[in-house]
Amino acid sequence: MAKAVVSGAKVVNYIDGSWVSSQSEQFTSIINPADGTILGDVLLSKKEDVDLAVEAAKRAQEQWRLVPAPQRAEVLYRVGAIMKERKEELAQILTSEMGKVIDEARGEVQEGIDMAFYMAGEGRRLFGDTTPSELKNKFAMSIRAPIGIVGIITPWNFPIAIATWKSFPAIVAGNAVIWKPATETPLMAMELVKIFEEAGLPKGVMNLVVGEGSAVGTAMVEHPDIQVISFTGSNEVGRRIAESCGRLLKRVSLEMGGKNAVIVMDDADLDLAVEGILWSAFGTSGQRCTACSRVIVHEEVKQELEEKLLAEMKKLTLGNGLDPKVKVGPVINAASLERIHEYVQIGKKEGATLLAGGMIKNEEELASGHYYAPTLFTNVDPGMRIAQEEIFGPVTSIIPVKSFEEAIKVNNGVVYGLSSSIYTRDVNKVFAAQRDLDTGIVYVNAGTTGAEIHLPFGGSKGTGNGHRDSGVAALDVFTEWKSVYIDFSGKLQRAQIDME
User: Fold this and answer.
1) Is 71 exposed, middle or buried (0-12, 13-18, 19+ CB in 10 A)?
2) Interatomic CA distance for residues 390 and 103, integer angstroms
């Protein structure tokens, strides 16, 4: 059995360039979900710690905003280079803390590296627009300006990638950051902050405040000097954040999950579809907001697809993700395990047919961890709860349809709109699907996961509130547009009134 690569760590806050504890001195354990071992302890901070971080960020941002953006970008280039040097070490820590298999952990770290270099490039762009003025001897343009203090709240399932999606564009744009990571995965947060420190980021530009959402997250949302909240997490918590931010006229960016589907048409390459479904449904043990939890299949190929899926699912090995032979790691904790199992019981009661899995795995060396068998339902009605609600575990449901049009309708018939996929050889269906699927991400002949950092990440409907992580679109969350008019006519010119 593979063993954890870290132990005995104590994660505290990083405020104004120093690692500091809290007056509360309360800690909770960081637990490896693969085997239950304690990796260390994380501080449970209070509102007062957020206040200290904000004061540090305010002081730092006044100077950081004046640093030319290409110079701000140099820090991100160094961050990316350090992450690249430490990639394997970071991946090992990530797997020990979060549970995903080592190949996925390496991929997540690489995503952070890519984001560092990509957003560093924006330091020489941060483009605005120039435009003709209505009046003579007058110049008009728009520029991006930093907002000020940014609060980011990140989840445990992608503890470094999502943090880079949010913090890197905020920093290169000239903001200072307060970061609350998930209490389940603070080790990755500590490692990333250490890298910022090594890369020479001025003190106070990045501040880490660890602890529970009810204390730290709430304090961040309510603090009047944090002008932006960028949150990834549950729909329930996101709605509460949106309500609070709306009351305070505070900008908020929300990414809140999905109920994603792979559509398999009757002309699809079924072997390729099976590969995509397996990776999308059971990678990260289904704990991705882009995970495939629905397979919408044309009735003509339903039975063949099921047979192929079942045959390949039998090859999936569960265990500690540090073992390179393991394909499916643990879920994050016991509460998640119970919630997943509860949804399986709901599916049975609703009349869905359980083809595989449907059980907590606790035999032999799995007994100390949190493992759920990869689970497949079939003959699922689109209105069933297991076809409507986000399960966030290794459970997927086969929904038969009679036509392409019905497949599109079923895909769109959920409250979420993050990711979708279609397998077909028909180019006409490909173009119709990318137009009609109401998700922020569409894949053709690929699964529902695999977003690249230079394109916007996010979705519609219950998935979010219209903002995007990643790509140039991420800069819109962390910058204000400023319109600038320069009149060199030497006289008063009244726009619209004095036009000739």
Assistant:
1) exposed
2) 25
Q: Where are the domains of the chain?
A: 9-256+464-483, 260-444
- Cα Rg, the chain, nearest whole Å: 24
- Is 260-444 CATH 2.60.300.12? no
Residues labelled catalytic: 255, 289
Q: Please tell me the distance from the alpha carbon of residue 62 to that of residue 175, in angstroms, as a whole number.
A: 9
Three-state secondary structure of the chain: CCCCCCCCEEECEEECCEEECCCCCCEEEEECCCCCCEEEEEECCCHHHHHHHHHHHHHHHHHHCCCCHHHHHHHHHHHHHHHHHCHHHHHHHHHHHHCCCHHHHHHHHHHHHHHHHHHHHHCCCCCCEEECCCCCCEEEEEEEEECCEEEEECCCCCCCHHHHHHHHHHHHCCCEEEEECCCCCHHHHHHHHHHHHHHCCCCCCEEECCCCHHHHHHHHHHCCCCCEEEEECCHHHHHHHHHHHHHCCCEEEEECCCCEEEEECCCCCHHHHHHHHHHHHHHHHHCCCCCEEEEEEECCCHHHHHHHHHHHHCCCCECCCCCCCCCECCCCCHHHHHHHHHHHHHHHHHCCEEEECCCEECCHHHCCCCEECCEEEECCCCCCHHHCCCCCCCEEEEEEECCHHHHHHHHHCCCEECEEEEECCCHHHHHHHHHHCCCCEEEECCCCCCCCCCCCECCEECCECCCCECCHHHHHHHEEEEEEEEECCCCCCCCCCCCC
Main-chain phi, psi angles of 476, to 5 degrees: -65, -25
CA 180 to chain centre: 14
Instruction: Check residue 23 and give its pLDDT.
Output: 82
Contacts of 213 (CB under 8 A, 6+ apart): 153, 180, 237
Question: What is d(CA 350, CA 346) in angstroms, rounded to the nearest whole number?
Answer: 6
Amino acid letter for position 385? R
Work out the pLDDT band at 107, boundaries 50, 70, 90. very high
- CA distance linking residue 10 with residue 446, whole number of Å: 41
Please state whether beta strands 27-31 and 38-43 pair in parallel, antiparallel, or not at all (unpaired).
antiparallel
Distance from C-alpha of 192 to C-alpha of 198, rounded to nearest angstrom = 10
pLDDT at 1 over 60: no
Class of domain 9-256+464-483: alpha beta
Buried b (16+ CB within 10 A) or exposed e, 43-69: bbbbeebbebbbebbeebbeebbebeb
Dist CA 347 CA 335 (whole Å): 19
pLDDT per position as a tens digit, 428-484: 999 999 999 999 999 999 999 999 999 999 999 999 999 999 999 999 999 999 999
